[in-house]
Fold Transposase.
Amino acid sequence: MGQVTVFSGPERRRRWSDEERLQILSEAFAPGACVAQVCRRHDISSALIYTWRRKLLDAGVEREAELPEALPTPVFAEAVIDEDVMGASAAEHPAMIIDLPRGKRLSIFAAAPPTLVAAALKGLR
């Protein structure tokens, strides 16, 4: 006769109700919240939270009334470059600083030619 192994203990796959998912999503995407901290608090992965949010937003077209108001829709932030500040500081401050062992430092300025930057970075490898 063969051998049978029985694993006892808590179920490995947890089940979350829709209310629990909405509560966790509202908590994770509230203004000023950190998704990683909410994940640690509820002992779930951040990938699961983003999967829940994607599925909720995909299904949200039919169930618009169920979407919590604290769950914002992802948007892009506009980047604004102030030309006056960039012109003055680009020549004074390096665009990239690389700290090397033994206290050495490599500074690359924005005006450096791309071939020179590529050669310097290749030499560091």
Observations:
- The mean pLDDT is 76.
- The longest strand covers residues 96-99.
